Amino acid sequence: MVRSIYCHFLEGRKCGIMGLQKKLKEAEQTMTNIKRTGVDRHRAKKIKKYLPLYCLMAFPLLHIFVLKIIPLFGVLISFERYRPTKGIFGSQWVGLDNFRSFFNSHYFELIFSNTLILSVLGLIISFPLSIIFALMLNEVRHQRFKKAVQMITYAPHFISVVVLVGVMQQIFDPTIGILQFFVGKEAASQILLMADPKYFRLLHIGSGVWQSIGWSSILYTASLSNVSVELYDAARVDGATLMQKIRNIDFPCLVPTISITLIMAIGGIMNTGFDKIYLMQNGTNINVSEVISTFVYKKGLLQADFGYSTAVGLFNSIINCIMIVGANFTVKKITGESMY
């Protein structure tokens, strides 16, 4: 009798606990539904609020998708003996033959070294110069003079490469150029700067620095403008010199900007630019001016060897990808700043 009553008691207790658990689950489900409804309403309200911005963002995203993402399927051409009449999926598949042909050719060492030398020299010279220029500009206190310098140095960025090379050809022309005013007309006629291989890299990098130093310094100038005036006042009170201010105030504020721009610059280390090099190129300086971009143009468009030229371009892109990942990892370890 006692055992029977005890069993009924346990069974009732068990049913009560199960019922309580069921009610708790129902309550939790109800709260979850309420929260989800609230989140959905908040999300819909947020989307409605920023809908015009989403519409504006749709156009560049569409541009990237159509002109950047979809053409990636063309990479398949680098593994084929591509024929335009047969298309991508109808051309003969050759695997890595195009890459082997490029690596085994006598062009590989020449154009790879030329590309690397021009890119590295340009980075080593132009990158620190733009930072130094921004630091110098930051010390100018006469606003009119500062704005005049900015306008003069920013203007070359908007000059077309075709116009720039044309001006260089006129300036360094042995018959009508400025050299005849310094060394005489007879001596100037013997100096062919635009045709001499010794001066090609100097002219290419020098004109690039002249054209980009002002524009490249904009980000650094903007970063320096956000430095608190109180820091300069405190440094002045402590008797800090100009170099001490730059080392302890200006440069630390520039580190995040320098880190990002350096990563991007290293990521494009193999992109020397096609336009100016091709316009400055001629038969006498081709041994130092032939780079990957001009080689791809000649092989692909002039000789219609699309598979081979695409393989060379893909190799160039892979190198850039490896460089940007490596640069991002290294800069993150050193400064703590990174792109991702």
Automatic annotation (TrEMBL):
<dbReference type="GO" id="GO:0055085">
    <property type="term" value="P:transmembrane transport"/>
</dbReference>
<keyword id="KW-0472">Membrane</keyword>
<dbReference type="Pfam" id="PF00528">
    <property type="entry name" value="BPD_transp_1"/>
</dbReference>
<keyword id="KW-1003">Cell membrane</keyword>
<dbReference type="InterPro" id="IPR035906">
    <property type="entry name" value="MetI-like_sf"/>
</dbReference>
<dbReference type="InterPro" id="IPR050809">
    <property type="entry name" value="UgpAE/MalFG_permease"/>
</dbReference>
<feature type="transmembrane region" description="Helical">
    <location>
        <begin position="306"/>
        <end position="331"/>
    </location>
</feature>
<feature type="transmembrane region" description="Helical">
    <location>
        <begin position="51"/>
        <end position="77"/>
    </location>
</feature>
<feature type="transmembrane region" description="Helical">
    <location>
        <begin position="111"/>
        <end position="137"/>
    </location>
</feature>
<keyword id="KW-1133">Transmembrane helix</keyword>
<comment type="similarity">
    <text>Belongs to the binding-protein-dependent transport system permease family.</text>
</comment>
<keyword id="KW-0812">Transmembrane</keyword>
<protein>
    <submittedName>
        <fullName>Sugar ABC transporter permease</fullName>
    </submittedName>
</protein>
<dbReference type="InterPro" id="IPR000515">
    <property type="entry name" value="MetI-like"/>
</dbReference>
<feature type="domain" description="ABC transmembrane type-1">
    <location>
        <begin position="112"/>
        <end position="327"/>
    </location>
</feature>
<feature type="transmembrane region" description="Helical">
    <location>
        <begin position="251"/>
        <end position="270"/>
    </location>
</feature>
<dbReference type="GO" id="GO:0005886">
    <property type="term" value="C:plasma membrane"/>
</dbReference>
<keyword id="KW-0813">Transport</keyword>
<feature type="transmembrane region" description="Helical">
    <location>
        <begin position="149"/>
        <end position="172"/>
    </location>
</feature>
